[in-house]
Amino acid sequence: MPEWTKEQEKAINHHGHDILVSASAGSGKTTILIERIIEMIKHGENVDNLLVATFTEAAAAEMKDRLINRLKDLSNDHLIKNVLRKHIQKQIFKVPIANISTLHAFCLSIIKKFYYIIDLDPNFRLLSDDTEKSIIQDQALDNVRNKYYEKHDKDFLTLVDNFSNDRSDDGLTDIIYKLYNFAITNDKTDKWLDQLTNIYTIEGKLNESNFYKLLYAPEIMRKLDQIKDLLDSGLDLAAGDEASNTYTPVFQDMIKKIEKVNEDIKLDVSYDEIRNEVFDLSFTTKKRAPKDAESDPVRLEIVKSIRKVLGDKVTKDLVNNFFLLDEKDTLKEISKAKDLIIKLTEVERNFMKEFAKLKNRQQVLDFNDLEHMAMKILTTEVDGNKVALQFYQNKFHEIMLDEYQDINAMQEGIIQLLKTKDNNIFMVGDIKQSIYGFRQAAPYIFAGKYEDYQKDENPNELIQLSKNFRSSKQVDDLVNTIFTRIFDKNIGEIDYDRQSELVVGTNFPDEVDTDSEMYVLSNEDDTNKVEKRQLQIRFTAKRIQKLINDEFKIFDAKKGEVRTIKYSDIAILVRNRNNNTDLISYFSKEEIPLMVTDAQNYFQTTELQIMMSMLEIVDNPRQDIPLVAVLRSPIVGLNEEELAQIRLVNKNEDYYTAVLDYISDENSQADLVRKLKSFLLQLETYRDFSNKNTIARLIWKIYQETAILEYVSGMPGGKQRSANLHALYQRASDYENNNLKGLHAFIDFIQRMEKMDKDLSQPNSIEATDDTVKVMTIHASKGLEFPVVILLDAGGSFNMRDVNSETLFDSELGLGLTVLNNTTRVAIRTPQHSLISEKRNVSTVSEEMRLLYVALTRAKQKIIVVGYEKDTTKMLNKWDQIKISSNGVIDDGSRLSAKSYQNLIGIGALNSDQRIKSHSHYAKNKDCRLNFDVVTDDLLDKNSDGNLLKVVDVREPTDLFKQTVNTILDFEYPYQEAVETTAYQSVSEIKGLFADPDDEKMAQSNLLSDRGRYNMESFAKPKFLAQSKVSSADVGSATHLLLQRVSIDKQPELIDFQNLVDDLVNNRILEPEVAKKIDLVSLANFYQSELGQEIVANNESVSREVPFSSLMPAKKLFKKKIDNESFNDKILVHGIIDGVIELEDGIKIFDYKTDNVTSQNLNEKINDYSGQLNLYAQAISTIKNKPILGKYLYFLKINEMVDLNKN
């Protein structure tokens, strides 16, 4: 039985009211949640009478597993009574079907049970793919938009003009989609849309409106207070020496002006008067300091920078953003914006109706529909009763919500519906870890209850879990030091006070290093983004190598022991996935094993670019970029010079035409012409195949015939690349399983994913148990823990797109619009836009702070922060400009302008009051053991241990050393057969191995049996030996092409083959010289044979050119080479069967041969090919799970069919 803390016991055992548990990082909230359920079960509760909502499906699955294991342990306890044991055993069987799931999954269960209440067809499908959803969305918006265009609706055209440009109306499209995403997560969607014009409804004077008094004026005063805080900080610094003190009167004068503006705002002075006062906010001229004045250069530089920053704040923050126009013009723009919103909401509603109609027609629902339909079901009355609501209110005795800080308004509405006086809500979360604002998570819901539940008159309870059982004291100290300075209600949603601080719950031994480290890389050169990124990656790799080489010690708290670090102890956390490709590349070069858990850039990988280009030209070969990409790729293997030669033949038309012209040109290089012909023949085969088969089958055919899977497997990171290609195949299969068809549509689908930034995550090619450094986004790391955490690219700027966009969205205030001036074509900000922009700025920085909190609290033992800054002196000066308020929190302005994790850590833990200098570029925090270093180029270029290479003494080898060397040299590898037998063989390479399954007849003279792969001697002849005449192989390939392409809807005749040849020659797929050599009569004769007529009779069951891959025992294929009975390795055999007839009771296969066969050598040829056909039969029988009814060889030259089953 664990020893619970007092607060944990409360969370487990308290009942009778709503409870909000604020569980800090590492406090064991999931364990507490499970123990609460266990205790309820022990007191007779049934698990199916609880609603337990988690944030992810993985979390729900883990909770069920842990709950079952706890119940099993409990049932095996010999001290419990039999009655309780039976009850517990019943619960074990109930857990898998209990309502322990995401809220989306719970809503889906409501719909499936009560669909009839809202007249919903139960045969719906859930849209789990955002891209498929976007296709339907686009269609819905196109339908709505076209109706407006057809009516020549002037207000709609004005709307388009305001939000779009002269090339497209994509701007309006984006706004409609964003507005939809905001509206749909509100539990009162229609009401929310209705209220969008409220803040734009102003009658009379601006300063007398509710908008101005309640929203706009307070924001202006807050901005003025921020400037005043910075001035106060400047005054404190200016008092330090005589030279700096010359700025004191300047700052004091500005403070008086600001106080006057604030007073006049409170006195309801008119907007224009306030505007004039703001325009007059300028600094007086500074007096010169005496020549002999005492001066601190650093202090003086900081004071000067404050003066400059303040000038920018007045000009940009106040004048440009809040007082650009006078009252008259401002009211005009507000009125225009209101008209735009009225039209926009009309279009939005029409779009929502059309979107719903199309989904209904296709019988699909998206995740937002689940919540809205569940809400509708719960609130709909049947015969005067809310049947569904009453059912669930009676069913659930308690509602438990995990990750409550990330709930949205719609989900909260559903939960409040289910609540009654008899069923309480138990909420667990941590607002400091609310990081899903982009999903419209509403941390203000948690914050409101956090504050209300602390009031004496509130019957509900707030429980704080602050003890961190995960991290070392130094990790906790660093987090507490930073966040007590930067986090409060204004920026962050709640105060980071004593209740919120992390309390050490695990003691680490003194012998292990738990100090935190922060490195700011600096380069005097003008370094671009890519170089900054690579510099940090290079440094990070060196730091990891040093940890490994130094055998850094890790404390395993669960085992209570100290051990040596492994790669898997280290996690690199990143803000986004932009660095992942460079990380993978550099770490691979440095031989540092890496697992990227959510690597974006999937479509930017070489192998995916090649495959997508191939699919694009199969769809339409007259596309220059993808065509050249495939020609240059390993699939064809042309070089730049050869590509240029092709283009020089035809400079004006598309590249495909240039290829055809090059083939026809008598002066073209024969070798290049051969490559191009072979490729065009292959491409035409794929184009024909794609018309009759699924996309997934096409992709697999390309994989098999080009061997691209094998090729990329041999590249650096080959395991991952192979996994990427398999993922594309799976994506195509999933696409078609959702009733979406067509290669062109699939290509559009993938391109849409790229455009929407909905990149597929690269599939993991490494097991989680492997000893690898983990790389993941901070979002993906939530809930995980690692001994060593490296926060990479800490100096990267926050994404402020939601602050600076011309149209802004806010769940509370609505829309912030800019209005386009028809004359100047300049977008003018409305006051509402400025207000929402400021609010979004605060919420964005707040969420970034919470992301930083999540990142730092993933660490168990050590935090390493790596960032970049060109001008580190300027950076340190900014850190020193901060002003600390009486409650210990840094002023709002400094926090809002930090704009990077590096700066947040700097102002929180490394300002001048906290730094202790060690030497010119090194410092540490005196309170939380944060070691800080500025790393310049010369330091970075040293060896990873920072020291020069040491001279090693040369010594005579010892006897033990000699014995070790001899052991190594005498070693015999036990798996030599596996080395000499490749894991992959084509049937054409091993077809001579068998005359029949029991009689191996291997033509040794034709095999390179002592090489790593058993294959035929097929080296290309040198050019001086090459023959210009048509070869028998060319004729054989062309013959097979005709037999593959000819229509078998009816019996083909000679004229059919002649017409087919003419088409292929005209399309430059078949050379005229080769066409002349084909024996068309023998082909027509084939279809008059018994086999040919059977093929025509069963044409719908016939497949031609059927590729396959099959695993076969190596020792069965290579009996003469492998005599080791214990050798059980298998080989992947790949081949293409000329034809398969799949009947109800079995399969028949056939293979045409164009050899020069006579009656004298017929038996010899049959023996040569029987092994090949036996392999085909074995493979296709295994794949199709059907018996082989016939195996036929057909020799075209002598019009002879051989049934190998009879022969």
From TrEMBL:
<keyword id="KW-0269">Exonuclease</keyword>
<dbReference type="GO" id="GO:0008408">
    <property type="term" value="F:3'-5' exonuclease activity"/>
</dbReference>
<keyword id="KW-0347">Helicase</keyword>
<keyword id="KW-0540">Nuclease</keyword>
<dbReference type="GO" id="GO:0003690">
    <property type="term" value="F:double-stranded DNA binding"/>
</dbReference>
<dbReference type="GO" id="GO:0000724">
    <property type="term" value="P:double-strand break repair via homologous recombination"/>
</dbReference>
<feature type="binding site">
    <location>
        <begin position="23"/>
        <end position="30"/>
    </location>
    <ligand>
        <name>ATP</name>
    </ligand>
</feature>
<dbReference type="InterPro" id="IPR014016">
    <property type="entry name" value="UvrD-like_ATP-bd"/>
</dbReference>
<dbReference type="GO" id="GO:0033202">
    <property type="term" value="C:DNA helicase complex"/>
</dbReference>
<protein>
    <recommendedName>
        <fullName>ATP-dependent helicase/nuclease subunit A</fullName>
        <ecNumber>3.1.-.-</ecNumber>
        <ecNumber>5.6.2.4</ecNumber>
    </recommendedName>
</protein>
<keyword id="KW-0413">Isomerase</keyword>
<dbReference type="InterPro" id="IPR027417">
    <property type="entry name" value="P-loop_NTPase"/>
</dbReference>
<dbReference type="GO" id="GO:0005524">
    <property type="term" value="F:ATP binding"/>
</dbReference>
<dbReference type="GO" id="GO:0016887">
    <property type="term" value="F:ATP hydrolysis activity"/>
</dbReference>
<comment type="function">
    <text>The heterodimer acts as both an ATP-dependent DNA helicase and an ATP-dependent, dual-direction single-stranded exonuclease. Recognizes the chi site generating a DNA molecule suitable for the initiation of homologous recombination. The AddA nuclease domain is required for chi fragment generation; this subunit has the helicase and 3' -&gt; 5' nuclease activities.</text>
</comment>
<dbReference type="InterPro" id="IPR038726">
    <property type="entry name" value="PDDEXK_AddAB-type"/>
</dbReference>
<dbReference type="Pfam" id="PF00580">
    <property type="entry name" value="UvrD-helicase"/>
</dbReference>
<keyword id="KW-0234">DNA repair</keyword>
<dbReference type="InterPro" id="IPR000212">
    <property type="entry name" value="DNA_helicase_UvrD/REP"/>
</dbReference>
<feature type="domain" description="UvrD-like helicase C-terminal">
    <location>
        <begin position="477"/>
        <end position="783"/>
    </location>
</feature>
<keyword id="KW-0227">DNA damage</keyword>
<feature type="domain" description="UvrD-like helicase ATP-binding">
    <location>
        <begin position="2"/>
        <end position="472"/>
    </location>
</feature>
<dbReference type="InterPro" id="IPR014017">
    <property type="entry name" value="DNA_helicase_UvrD-like_C"/>
</dbReference>
<comment type="similarity">
    <text>Belongs to the helicase family. AddA subfamily.</text>
</comment>
<dbReference type="InterPro" id="IPR011335">
    <property type="entry name" value="Restrct_endonuc-II-like"/>
</dbReference>
<dbReference type="InterPro" id="IPR014152">
    <property type="entry name" value="AddA"/>
</dbReference>
<keyword id="KW-0547">Nucleotide-binding</keyword>
<keyword id="KW-0067">ATP-binding</keyword>
<dbReference type="Pfam" id="PF12705">
    <property type="entry name" value="PDDEXK_1"/>
</dbReference>
<comment type="subunit">
    <text>Heterodimer of AddA and AddB/RexB.</text>
</comment>
<keyword id="KW-0238">DNA-binding</keyword>
<dbReference type="Pfam" id="PF13361">
    <property type="entry name" value="UvrD_C"/>
</dbReference>
<dbReference type="GO" id="GO:0043138">
    <property type="term" value="F:3'-5' DNA helicase activity"/>
</dbReference>
<dbReference type="InterPro" id="IPR011604">
    <property type="entry name" value="PDDEXK-like_dom_sf"/>
</dbReference>
<dbReference type="GO" id="GO:0005829">
    <property type="term" value="C:cytosol"/>
</dbReference>
<keyword id="KW-0378">Hydrolase</keyword>
